[in-house]
Amino acid sequence: MVRVFAVLNAVWRATRRGQGSFLSIGTNNFLIFTAYFLRQTGTVLYLLIALLLFFPLSADPLRKIPRERLVLWPLERREWWALRILSPWLNPIMWLLAAATVWAVRRAVTWQLLASVAGLFALSFLLSDLGGGAWDALARRVPGFGGLLGELIRKNLRQMLSTLDFWLALVLSVATTIYRIADRPAPPEALLMMSLMIMLALSSYAQCLFGLDGAGGLTRYRLLPLHGWQILLAKDAAFLITALALTITLNPLVGLSAALTVLAIGHEQSVKHLKPQVRWRFSTGASLGNGVVQVAAMFIAANGVAGTSVLLMIPCAAAYAVSVWWFGRRLS
Amino acid sequence: MPDAVPTMISCRDLTCRYGEFVAVDCLTLNIEAGSICAFLGPNGAGKSTTVKMLTGLIAPSSGSATVAGLDVVRDALKIKQRIGVLPENLGLFEDLTVEEHLHLTGAVYKLSSADTKDRSNQLLRALHLEHGRHTFASRCSHGMRKKTSLAMALLPNPQVLFLDEPLEAIDPVTAKTITDLLVTLSHRGITVFLTSHILAAVEQFATRVVLIRKGVVAWNSTIAEVPGSLEKLYFDLVESPAVEDLAWLGSSQS
After folding, report:
1. Cα torsion for B203, B209, B210, B211, to the nearest 10°?
2. Is A147 within 8 Å of chain B by CB?
3. For the residues A2-27, what does the mean pLDDT come to?
4. Whole-model pTM?
């Protein structure tokens, strides 16, 4: 069993490091602001977030050890079984399930709910082995755009798709759209609010645009004969396309003005402080203060465009253009 | 009198410091157009740092350098349009496929779509990458990633090629293809500046050898001027193999 515990120790260290990425909750605009504004009525929303948050965590911890390495170690059959049985307990979800089981026995939680949660956990555990293929299939569907920056935009869109920010925004967008299609009249204020919620979900990503490029990607940027503003523009194009696509059925003008504003403010952090991000997690913003400024400006700009005049898009676009020029120079 | 061969890479007292540590110390070099310069040394000697300074990835702490007659600091963007680089970390985007990397390169270097497609197909065939053209970089083997990065360096038809360990982690057939290709490119006037640890291979095709040790040039000559074998010169001037007994290896005790 010495070998089993040695392997479990390594898996535990790797799992614990991975969980560090959940600290993104502390500097993610959406999570901070919804926690504040919806602290009374946001139960369903938080269940949704919890599902998105815990789904990647529900992977098999043993996968932290490269498969090739694992099969090369001289482990006996009984040691394999011991690893198989013990390693899931390094996953915090397993302990939550165990606690739920105790509550179920005491009837605090129904057996049906417990079975559903356990089923979901088991499914995600199994899916963690199939995830790569499914992601590849989805990533291949991202269209190319041609032109000088087309492939970079495609790559940036794929990166956005691999963050939980996008999927949360998508769920909000689809849910609101279905609500509208179901012939339920929604007041313009509600559509404005939902558009802003979608942009709030995406806004932290605008503070860490280069977070998923990795060392190799950043090296390539430095080698390409492109100006800094062109590289920034390719990043922003992916963000703007996503923002427009998610708000087009609600209030696209609000979506666009909010996107331009969060990008204009987010460029500083994206360019000056390259903060590596983890895929399938919420984006980690630079700081709480930066997030507050970004969200406040976004609300003011979007409310102005929706409530006062569409012409207020002009200062939003101007601020954005200045930001691309200034921080593009810095990037160069 | 034969025409003087123009200098394509020139360094004068090029230095790179990381705090107190001097990675490259007063490097002075002149590399003629059309030559294949093998820049050799142990890990941490300053080879990759030199490549990074010459390709604009990092700024020199002091000294100056020109590539294709352009200053590496002042004319960084112009230089990028004339060079092809295989960087140390390969410089690939995990979210693009092998073929998409080549399309990106073609677009950024302003090649027409037809040219990009033609050159991409030829490079994929030459480097035995056709089977993996639709594979994402994140799913490629190290060899495939290296070949992708090399194809990106070659696609825009650069004047100067900087290759950081192009022959390492490559299968023998592709290694032979690459060395033959480099010789052909050199005959066509393209300058190649490469780092490597495979001395026997480098000795076969390099025209100039520079040995670097602890950031300082220990040897700089044409390959013809190397006395005896390159390996012997390397062991004599740069580093001899460590002799450690490791008596426990092969003993009955596990």
Report:
1. 30
2. yes
3. 73
4. 0.83
Give the three-state DSSP class for B212. Answer: strand
Strands laid side by side in the B83-86 sheet: B83-86, B160-164, B191-196, B36-40, B208-213, B216-222
On whether residue A141 sits in a domain, the answer given is no
Q: What is the pLDDT of residues A271-287, one digit of tens each?
A: 998 888 878 777 887 77
**Architecture, CATH, for domain B1-82+159-167+178-241:** 3-Layer(aba) Sandwich (3.40)
Residues 6 or more apart in contact with residue A19 via CB below 8 angstroms:
A57, A92
For chain B, say whether A227 makes contact (Cβ under 8 Å).
Answer: yes
> Looking at A65, A97, A131, which one is the last position of a domain?
A131
Assembly ipTM = 0.86
Which residues, at least 6 apart from B107, have a Cβ–Cβ distance to it below 8 Å?
A: A146, A147, A148, A149, A150, A151, B116
> SS3 of A241, please?
helix
In chain B, where are the structural domains located?
A: 1-82+159-167+178-241, 90-157
CB < 8 Å to A227, chain B? 77
The rounded distance, in Å, linking the Cα atoms of B78 and A232 is: 20
> What is the CB neighbour count within 10 angstroms for residue B56?
19
Q: In terms of residue numbers, what domain contains A79?
A: 2-131
Judge: B93–A220 Cβ closer than 8 Å, yes or no: yes
